[in-house]
Design brief:
CATH superfamily: Glycoside hydrolase/deacetylase
Helix content: 40-55%
Structural class: alpha/beta
Bound molecules: zinc ion
Order of helices and strands: HEHHEHEHHHEHHEHEEHH
Length: 278
């Protein structure tokens, strides 16, 4: 056991004990981020979702939008919105094997420019763009349009994760339009429906800037980041915080992340993101 594994249960107990001192702001939504989920982790994902349903409860993307838009009564709760980034094929499988039995609806962020590529080109782009060259695609591939369309027909929402999963920071206006506006138009053309949701690639404050957020603002009401924190009705809708969840870590650490216990370390980064968005 390493130090982190020993510290997490203590940190989780302390975080939960102090819960009553942290009332949830109006319209709070705890947005969780997952990526590719290998099949061996499906049971871990199922138990996480079942636990969330018993405790904070889940909301659909539409309900999350209504809460964040201030359109729901103040109830003191912070229900959870499940989001999955990058559109890996495992997401299609887990939608039927994990989410459907639990009647859970999620928001899947896909990259239309990658989906449109021929397979060899896409496999190269998965390694270069999504994994930033740190690893290759291995046996991973992305969902095709038919699978993405079936998720949408099953009541899940499909959000935009840029066209090709490149960092939007420092891009000039024409490139930004390709990655944001044209990506949205392509998704709308294939799926027949425009999404309200964008998530910028990589999610950290160094992968975004004010011009990119302004371009996103021109096309999407909501932009989810990867900066930890609790989204709520007074959050800037283009600087929504979210909690990345690693299903491979010990359960106490996973719960700590899912319940917001790591967010205090990210307050300054969230403030920087909000300043960029304003
Ligand atoms: Zn991504």
């Amino acid at each position: 056991m390493n130090l982190r594994a020993l510290a997490a249960p203590l940190a989780l107990a302390a975080w939960r004990a102090a819960g009553p001192l942290r009332p949830n702001p109006p319209g709070a939504v705890r947005i969780l981020i997952l990526h590719d989920v290998p099949q061996v982790q499906f049971s871990v994902l199922a138990s996480l979702i079942a636990e969330l349903q018993r405790n904070a409860g889940l909301v659909t993307p539409a309900e999350a939008g209504a809460r964040l838009g201030g359109g729901m009564p103040t109830d003191g709760k912070a229900p959870v919105l499940l989001t999955f980034d990058d559109g890996f094929r495992s997401n299609f499988q887990l939608a039927y094997e994990v989410l459907a039995p639990l009647r859970a609806k999620a928001l899947f962020f896909v990259c239309p420019g990658l989906v449109d590529m021929e397979r060899p080109e896409r496999i190269t782009a998965i390694g270069a763009n999504i994994f930033r060259g740190r690893r290759g695609a291995g046996d991973l591939d992305l969902m095709d349009w038919e699978q993405i369309g079936r998720l949408a027909e099953s009541g899940h929402e499909i959000g935009c994760h840029s066209a090709r999963h490149v960092s939007l920071a420092g891009l000039a206006a024409p490139a930004l339009e390709d990655e944001v506006g044209a990506a949205k138009a392509r998704m709308e053309g294939v799926l027949g429906k425009a999404s309200s949701w964008f998530a910028f690639p990589f999610g950290d404050v160094d992968s975004i800037d004010a011009p990119a957020l302004a371009a996103i603002a021109g096309h999407f009401p909501f932009c989810r980041s990867g900066v930890r924190g609790l989204a709520h009705a007074a959050s800037h809708p283009l600087a929504l915080p979210a909690e990345s969840i690693d299903l491979g870590v010990p359960v106490a650490l996973r719960r700590l992340a899912a319940e917001g216990g790591m967010a205090p370390l990210y307050r300054r980064r969230l403030r920087r993101l909000e300043e960029m968005a304003s």
